[in-house]
Write a structure and sequence with these properties.
Rossmann fold; 4-stranded parallel β-sheet; binds iron/sulfur cluster
Length: 407
C-alpha cells in the first residue's frame, strides 16, 4: 500500500463538488483527480448519493474528492439526495461550485450565497471552456476573479490552474490547523501512553487514535513510552524522571489516575480527539447532564465507523453499564454506528466516539446538526472520565498548557 493510500480519511481534507444536474461535476472530478472516480453520463442526475474517493493531489498530498447529486434534482428522491448533499457540504474543507456556460440563474446566486455562509473556501468553476459561450456573465458578479475558473474537463484547459489554487488554499489551511498534541509536545519531553491489550484490541496492531498520537509525539521530537495498564508502576520506576505527560485509554482511566502521581499531567486519547476534532468545552458542559438523567431517559451512543462489536464492546457494553451504575437509573440506551443518525432530538444525551475516522470539518458538521435542534452532545472520553470522577484531573493538562501560552 502506498503512503498516500494508507493515510486515514480522517486526516484528508475533503474537496466537495456541488452544482446543478449535468453541470459537469463528475467529469471535472475525473479531470482533477486524473482517475475515473465518478460515473460520467450526459443524462442528468447520474450521481445520486455523494460519491467519495480518496486520492492524491500532487504535490499537496492525500485528499478525498466528493461528487454530489445535482442541487436541482427534482426526482422522486430529490429531497433526500439534496439533504445528503447538504451534509457533504457541511463536512467539506473546500467547495467547488460547478456550472455550465449560459445557465447561470438566480438559483445559482442563491446556492452560492448558501455555500458562502458555511465560511468555507468556495471556488466557482465553469466547465466546457472549449465550447464558445454566448457571453461572459456565467459567473456571479460578486466573485473575486481569483476564485473563478473556466475549465475544460475534456481538453484540460484551466485544470492545472484550478489544481494550483486548491493546493494553495489547502496548504494555507494546513499551516494554521491545530494538531492532536498541540501545545502539549516539545522536544525531549517524555510522554507515557497507556494502551490496554484486551479482547477489544485488534490483533497485531494498535488502533488509529493510538498510532496517530505516537506519530505526533515523534514528530514533536518527544520520547514515547507505551505500556499496558498493568506495567505502569514498573515503567515509572524505570524512568529516571517522571513523564511530562501520560495519555491513557479512557477505559482504564481510573486505574491510570490511581497509578500516576497527581503531580504528573494525565489525560486520555479520547479527550485529545475531542479537543482536536470536536469542541472540548461543549463536551465537558454536556457531560455534566449525565447527573440529571432519570429512569427511562433516552441516551444515544454514536460511533463514526461501523465495526464488528465485541462481547465487551465499549459502546454496547461498557459505557451503558457505567452509565447505569453511576446514575442508578434504568436508562433507554441506543447504539448506532456509521452515518450520524437523523432523529437525535429524541435523546436527552448523545455520546459521540472520538471520531478518528472523520475530519474535523465533518465532526463540526455533526455538532452543527446537534446544535440546530439543541441536542446535548458529549464524547466518550469526557463522559467516561466524568462517570469515574476524574474529569477535572484529565482536563488539567489543557488548562496548564493555556496558562503556559499566556505567560
Ligand atoms: S468508533 Fe470512533 S473513535 Fe473508535 S475507531 Fe471508530 S471512529 Fe475511531
Amino acid at each position: 500500500m502506498s503512503t498516500s493510500q494508507s493515510t486515514p480519511r480522517g486526516l484528508r481534507p475533503h474537496i466537495v463538488l456541488v452544482g446543478k444536474c449535468n453541470a459537469g461535476k463528475s467529469l471535472l472530478l475525473n479531470a482533477i483527480s486524473g482517475h475515473d472516480i465518478a460515473i460520467v453520463s450526459p443524462t442528468a442526475g447520474t450521481t445520486t448519493d455523494p460519491v467519495s474517493r480518496a486520492s492524491e493531489l500532487v504535490p499537496f498530498g492525500p485528499v478525498v474528492y466528493v461528487d454530489t447529486a445535482g442541487i436541482d434534482d427534482d426526482g422522486a428522491l430529490g429531497a433526500a439526495r439534496t439533504k445528503k448533499t447538504r451534509r457533504a457540504v457541511a463536512g467539506a474543507d473546500i467547495l467547488l461550485y460547478v456550472t455550465k456556460p449560459d445557465t447561470w440563474s438566480d438559483d445559482d446566486d442563491a446556492e452560492l450565497g448558501r455555500l458562502r455562509e458555511s465560511k468555507k473556501p468556495v471556488l466557482v468553476v465553469e466547465t466546457h471552456a472549449d465550447v464558445p459561450a454566448s457571453d461572459e456573465s456565467s459567473f456571479s458578479v460578486t466573485d473575486p476573479p481569483e476564485n473563478r475558473f473556466r475549465v475544460s474537463s475534456v481538453s484540460g484547459i484551466g485544470i492545472d490552474e484550478l489544481k494550483l489554487t486548491l493546493i494553495e488554499k489547502l496548504s494555507g489551511a494546513r499551516e494554521t490547523q491545530k494538531t492532536l498534541l498541540d501545545d502539549l509536545v516539545r522536544p525531549f519531553r517524555v510522554i507515557m501512553m497507556i494502551v490496554p491489550i484486551d479482547l477489544e484490541a485488534p490483533a497485531g496492531r494498535l488502533i488509529m487514535p493510538q498510532v496517530q498520537t505516537i506519530r505526533e509525539a515523534l514528530d514533536g521530537d518527544a520520547m514515547t513510552v507505551v505500556v499496558k495498564e498493568r506495567e505502569v508502576s514498573w515503567a515509572l520506576e524505570q524512568l529516571t524522571r517522571p513523564p511530562d505527560l501520560v495519555i491513557t485509554d479512557s477505559q482504564v482511566v481510573l486505574k491510570a489516575a490511581g497509578a500516576i502521581p497527581d503531580s504528573v499531567p494525565l489525560t486520555t486519547f479520547s479527550i485529545l480527539f475531542s479537543r482536536f476534532k470536536g469542541d472540548l468545552d461543549l463536551f465537558v458542559k454536556n457531560a455534566r447532564m449525565i447527573d440529571s438523567l432519570r429512569h427511562g431517559s433516552r441516551v444515544l451512543i454514536t460511533e463514526t465507523c461501523s465495526h464488528h462489536a465485541h462481547c465487551d464492546d465499549i459502546a454496547r457494553v461498557k459505557i451503558p453499564r457505567w452509565l447505569r451504575q453511576y446514575t442508578g437509573k434504568d436508562l433507554a440506551i441506543d447504539v448506532v454506528g456509521g452515518p450520524f443518525p437523523e432523529q437525535i432530538d429524541q435523546y436527552e444525551l448523545v455520546i459521540h466516539c472520538g471520531a478518528c475516522t472523520i475530519t474535523r470539518s465533518q465532526m463540526h458538521a455533526r455538532l452543527g446538526e446537534a446544535r440546530s435542534i439543541e441536542a446535548p452532545i458529549t464524547n466518550y472520553g469526557v463522559a467516561i472520565s466524568h462517570i469515574h470522577g476524574v474529569l477535572e484531573r484529565v482536563l488539567e493538562p489543557f488548562v496548564n498548557a493555556e496558562r503556559q501560552l499566556d505567560l
